[in-house]
Amino acid sequence: MRYGRYVATSLLALGGSGFVGRAVVDEGCRRGWEVTTFNRGRGPAVDGVSQIIGDRRDRASLERLRDRDWDVVVDTWSGAPCAARDSAAVLAHHAARYIYISSGSVYAPPPPIGGDESAATVEASPDAENGDYSELKRGAELAVTQAFGDRALVARAGTILGPHEDVGRLPWWLNRMAAGGEILAPGPPGLQLQLIDARDLASFVLDAALAGHSGPFNVVSRRGHATMRSLLEACHEVAGAPDARLTWMDPHAVIAAGIEPWTELPIWLPPDSEFAGMHAANVERANAAGLHCRPVEQTVQETWTWLSELDGPPPLRSDVDPPGLDSARESAALDAWHVRTL
């Protein structure tokens, strides 16, 4: 399969069993590539995918990656940057291209409205062994870029949704719709969002890297590709119980009720939030490089299908707190809203 200057036949996914890593592995398989994962073997095996068991925090096990060469490496690491540094150093002469899945969180807070890839980032080190999430991601960006130079592509992803999500944002909304009753819908309904389906992220980074693109990209939909209304109505349409009904609340009333944006009401930020730039990034560079984002309705439908087929609760990363609003707090906020609007 030819992409610009490169012909890709082999893909190494560092990790590859979680949410975004799994989407990358699935996309590589869909293209007919030879796909290999390097991880601790704790996730489910994928048919047709070779697996190298190892721990990237153990330099001795990283040496196993020197045994062959790869066309593309994809790394979703969110831990200590020094681990990304070590893996990139080992692979620098064994891989043509290195893709690092980073985050828009690397931009210095508060994220600028309309900010592009040149916006200021947090201070970080590629040699760090700890730090907060933004510092870890930025440090890993620096580590990968130092090792691969213009053969490295950094995808600064926005809010990632889709089947196998392990952060719990979209699954919470879908399960809330399925529980039924009156549902607090934070306004305004037309609030513009920026989202990316993990599968679209995977497709973009492989295409862009193999076309010869490098450097950082803000990888998320254009602002307004979805709104709070289109997102929540799609969730209601596919998962809503017969008595489920949305009650739109003014954003100031939501805040006055003491409800935390983003965590208690996943994905939502009030329009005047200092972090509103999280849904207002400049994504023209990625769009010029071929980014395609499927309709949010498709992401919602297919995520609900995946959730419905699970034997138990959806997976949740150990390093994140479960999102969502307690039912008693939701009821109290709705009661206060009804009194206010009588």
Instruction: List SSEs in N-to-C order.
Output: EEEHEEHEHEHEEHEEEHEEHEHEEHHH
Report the strand count: 17
Helix percent reads 25-40%
Put simply, the count of helices is: 11
Radius of gyration: 21 Å
Structural class: alpha/beta
The parts where pLDDT drops under 50 for at least 5 residues are: none
| Neighbour order of strands in the largest sheet | 5-4-3-6-7-8-13
Q: What portion of residues belong to β-strands?
A: 15-25%
Distance between the termini: 63 Å
Lay out the secondary structure:
Layout lengths: L1 E2 L2 E2 L2 E5 L4 H12 L3 E6 L10 E4 L5 H4 L7 E6 L5 H11 L3 E9 L29 H16 L3 E6 L1 E3 L7 H11 L2 E5 L5 E2 L1 E3 H13 L4 E5 L6 E2 H12 L5 E5 L1 H6 L4 E2 L2 E2 L17 H5 L7 H14 L17 H14 L2
Helix pairs in contact: 1-6, 3-4, 5-7, 7-10
Brief write-up:
The protein is an alpha/beta fold and 342 residues long. It has helices at 19-30, 59-62, 81-91, 133-148, 169-179, 198-210, 228-239, 251-256, 284-288, 296-309, 327-340; strands at residues 2-3, 6-7, 10-14, 34-39, 50-53, 70-75, 95-103, 152-157, 159-161, 182-186, 192-193, 195-197, 215-219, 226-227, 245-249, 261-262, 265-266.
Q: Any key phrases for this structure?
A:
single chain; 342 residues; alpha/beta; 7-stranded parallel β-sheet; 11 helices; 35% helix
Describe this structure in words.
This protein is α/β, with parallel strands linked by helices and 342 residues long. It is built from eleven helices and 17 strands. The strands form six sheets. Strands 5-4-3-6-7-8-13 form a seven-stranded parallel beta sheet, with helices on both faces. It has a two-stranded antiparallel sheet with strand order 1-2. The protein has a two-stranded parallel sheet with strand order 9-12. Helix 1 (19-30) links the parallel strand 3 (10-14) and strand 4. Helix 5 packs across helix 7 and helix 7 packs parallel to helix 10. The longest helix is centred in the middle third of the chain and has 16 residues, at 133-148. 47% of the residues are buried. The model has no long low-confidence stretch (mean pLDDT 94).
